[in-house]
Specification:
With 188 residues, this protein is an alpha/beta fold. The protein has a domain of 128 residues: Rossmann fold (3-Layer(aba) Sandwich), CATH 3.40.50. It has 7 helices and 9 strands; from the N terminus they run ββααββαβαβαβαββα. The strands form 3 sheets. The protein has a 5-stranded parallel sheet, sandwiched between helices. The radius of gyration is 19 Å and the shape is globular. One of its GO terms (molecular function) is fatty-acyl-CoA synthase activity. It catalyses: a medium-chain fatty acid + ATP + CoA = a medium-chain fatty acyl-CoA + AMP + diphosphate.
Length: 188
């Protein structure tokens, strides 16, 4: 009743629903605290390391030019811990703080999502199609303390930053750098 994907048995929708129902019927215990990064990602990395689970990519990204990024569960876990440290230490964020990410579809988007889960930081995604007015509204409404964007989008985003009273740090993703911005790759 399961299908195979790269040699792994995957749960079918009916199995997932029955697991959920067993929690609702109090047949399985619901954990008091759950963190996807540490409870799932790190556990899968441990199972791979111990040889109890075949090695498969946790993340596999390919862009239009054929550029490829492939991370194992262990690599994604390690990188997300480093990124969580960047957010906590360099950006000065704490559990419950909010981060707005205005990024195109790049691997760092997923990395930062997992890092925020790991650190208990609220990740607010935004597409690269947001206007200055959209970004300004989101910054004020969310009281975000950090803004993350790409080196190519930073000039457009900077126009709304002076009006943001809650913003403490700005993090840039990509190859370029800007004055007053922290650079993710350098900090990792």
């Amino acid at each position: 009743s399961s299908r195979t994907f790269h040699g792994n048995n995957r749960l079918l929708t009916s199995q997932i629903v029955s697991y959920y129902e067993s929690i609702n019927q109090c047949k399985k215990e619901l954990p008091e605290y759950f963190n996807f990064a540490s409870d799932v990602l790190d556990e899968w990395a441990r199972l791979e390391k111990d040889g109890k689970k075949p090695a498969n990519p946790a993340f596999w990204w390919i862009n239009e030019e054929g550029e490829e990024v492939k991370w194992s569960f262990e690599e994604l876990g390690s990188l997300s811990r480093k990124a969580a440290n960047v957010l906590s230490e360099a950006c000065g964020l704490q559990r419950g703080d909010r981060v707005i990410a205005v990024l195109p579809r790049v691997p760092e988007w997923w990395l930062l999502t997992v890092a925020c889960m790991r650190a208990g930081i609220v990740f607010i995604p935004g597409t690269s199609q947001l206007t200055a007015k959209d970004i300004s509204y989101r910054l004020q409404a969310s009281k975000a303390k950090c803004l993350i964007t790409s080196d190519t989008l930073a000039p457009a985003v900077e126009s709304v930053l002076p009006g943001s009273q809650f913003l403490k740090s700005k993090l840039i993703v990509g190859q370029g750098s800007r004055d007053g911005w922290l650079h993710l790759k350098e900090l990792l």
